[in-house]
Amino acid sequence: MRLIDPEAFDRIRNEYNGNTSDMSATISLEKESILIKEDTGAIQADLQEIKDSSVRYGREYQMYLFINLGTGLLSSEKDNFQGDNSNSYPGYKYDPLDAVNYLYNDRRPYSKLLIGQIHGHPATTESGRETISEMSSKDRDVAMKFQIAIYGVDAMYGDIGDPDYINRANPNGSDTRKVGMTKGRNNNRDKIFTIGRDALKIWGQSNSPFSIR
Amino acid sequence: MRITLLALLLMAFGLKGKAQNNKRILFVLPDSVEMIASKYIQHKDNPSLTHDLYCLLGSKGEDTCTITITSYDTAARTIIARWLSCTNRSVMIDKTEYPLLTDLDFKFGLPDDQDVGQMGKRNGYKICPLPHIYCTIVFGAVNGKVLSITSTRDAAPAE
Q: How does residue B8 score in pLDDT terms, banded at 50, 70 and 90?
């Protein structure tokens, strides 16, 4: 996958009368674009840590998936200070000119495009209740509002370092259960859920944030 | 002397209570909405009081409002705990006042007011509430008619 400025893409497409699969057009598109590289190691480590921290402390730890528009790096960042046992608070910076959300701590000129949020679903501390493995209607609402994938990592049981299931709320208001698992102690990159790619694919097909009410 | 001191203390506390009341804005909901909110709070499925409750008032278009009753951990150092500790709005449900935030707090409120930036180049980011134990009532702002009720499913009572 490659990242290209929409204006550059339109210019090249017009130059080749809409035939972007033309060999010369492809070369031009490659020249004007950057390759998206997924920082799999960092994302998987953060993902497991979100799960482990949520289990250990009974709080909804959260992290973000983003693309660095300058380098094409698809990576993640943890945000350890915002959740409690039953609440997550996704942060964001909305740019009305580009109609996209950037990472909450990004600085001008913004470069970290927000494409996904992940939070733990720990065992509830409320007596007589049980956290179950699914996304809530609020998770779906936020996925629709932000037009990104919102992932919930099961963090109700197990030990630190154990793998666990991931559910997903989608920008169209639906949800998908058990889309993948955290890596656990598995370091074989061929057998892990590439959550960054998953979020990027969904973001690529979504609308502008706050466009759906 | 002891009686005088006690009388003075009582006066001081009395004045403090009155001053606090004068410094807050009390919201009341339409009767039909308050009744449902009260039932949710009293119901066995409600968030227990290991966490404190708060309410979030929002709007959907011109004539429709939402009220969400949810909980927060007063001991956690979250942005929401800080905001709720300093809000002067509350909503009356039955005999209890619950702290109130509105959707405008989330649209314009700064989670970190230490890094505001300069006019024209503000730095502030926003946060979005994502509660997992809640009840949301959608209702007509003018007629108070209840349009829908959504209650949490992902923390269902244990069998």
A: very low
A118 neighbourhood in chain B, CB within 8 Å: none
Q: Does residue A63 fall inside a structural domain?
A: yes
- Statement to judge: residues A138 and A161 lie in one domain: yes
CATH number at residue A196: 3.40.140.10
Residue A149 has pLDDT above 90, yes or no: yes
Give the model confidence (pLDDT) of B72-92 as tens digits.
988 888 889 999 999 999 999
Q: Using only the alpha carbons of chain A, give its radius of gyration.
A: 18
| Residue A193 belongs to a domain | yes
Partner B contacted by A59 (CB < 8 A): yes
Residues A177, A105, single domain; the answer is yes
* Full 3-state SS string of B126-147: EECCEECCEEEEEEECCCCCEE
Q: Is A207 on the interface with B (CB under 8 A)?
A: no
pTM (2 decimals)? 0.86
Do B133 and A105 lie within an 8 Å CB cutoff?
no
Q: Give residue-wise pLDDT tens across range B32-49.
A: 999 999 998 887 555 555
Query: How close, in Å, is residue A122 to chain B by CA atoms?
Result: 10
Of A37, A32, A38, nearest to A194 by C-alpha is: A38
Instruction: Look at residue A37 in the predicted model and tell me its pLDDT.
Output: 95
* Distance, CA of B36 to chain centre: 16
Shortest alpha-carbon distance between residue B24 and chain A (Å): 26
The interface predicted TM-score (ipTM) is 0.83
Task: Count Cβ atoms within 10 A of the Cβ of residue A136 and give its class: 0-12 exposed, 13-18 middle, 19 or more buried.
Answer: buried
* Number of domains observed in the structure of chain A: 2
Q: Closest approach of chain A CAs to the CA of B7, in angstroms?
A: 42
Q: Range of A13's domain?
A: 1-35
